[in-house]
Amino acid sequence: MHSRSVFAAVIASLFTYANGHMTMRSPVPYGVDTLNNSPLETSGSDFPCKQRAGVYDVSTMNSMAVDSPQTLAFQGGATHGGGSCQVSITLDQEPTADSTWKVIHSIIGGCPINSDGNLSGNPTDEGSDTFEFSIPNGVPNGQYTLAWTWFNKIGNREMYMNCAPIDVSGSDEDESFFDSLPDMFVANLPPDQCHTPESENFVFPDPG
C-alpha cells in the first residue's frame, strides 16, 4: 500500500475510535446538542454527567411512571466488548460532584452489547442492544436526574456516564426507600480510585 494510503487509513481508524464510543439514546439525555461520546475524564473533572456548557439543557423531559417498563438504548459503534452498566438516580435536577446517586438497575455483562467486538464505529449506529428497566415505587414523585454509567470490558479502563432529565409519577412518596438503595459505583477516574479489571465483565459489589 502506498505510504499516503497507509497514513489515510491510520487517520481514519483513529477518527473512528474517537467518534465511535457510545452515548445514551433513550432516555433522551440532557444537552443533546453538546453531548460527546467520550468517557469521563480520568481526572474526574467532568463528573458527573460530562460537565460542559449547556450540560443540563433539556430538550425532552422523560416522563416515567413508577413500575412501568422503560427502554435503555444507545448509539455509537465502539462497544469495547460490552461490559457492565448501571442505571442510577439523584434527586438533584442539576447534579454536582457532591450529589447522592442511588442505583435502580444493574446489568452485569453484555452492556451495551453482548459481543466481543465493536460495531461499525458510526456515531449514529443504533445496532447495540436495548434493555428494560423501571423506576421502583418508593422513588418520590418529582423531576430528577437519571444516569447511565458503563464500565467497558475491553480497552482502556474508563467510566462512561450520560445523564437525562426524568419526571417521576405514581409513587408512594416515601423517601426512606430511596435512601435505602445502593450507591452508584464509581471507578477509573482519579488515579487513586479503584480500577475495574480488563477483559472481564465487572461484577458490582452492591448491584441492587
Automatic annotation (TrEMBL):
The keyword DNA-binding does not apply. Residues 1-20 form the signal peptide. Keywords: Signal. The keyword Transmembrane helix does not apply. Coiled coil: none annotated. PANTHER family: LYTIC POLYSACCHARIDE MONOOXYGENASE, PROTEIN, PUTATIVE (AFU_ORTHOLOGUE AFUA_6G10930)-RELATED. This is Lytic polysaccharide monooxygenase.
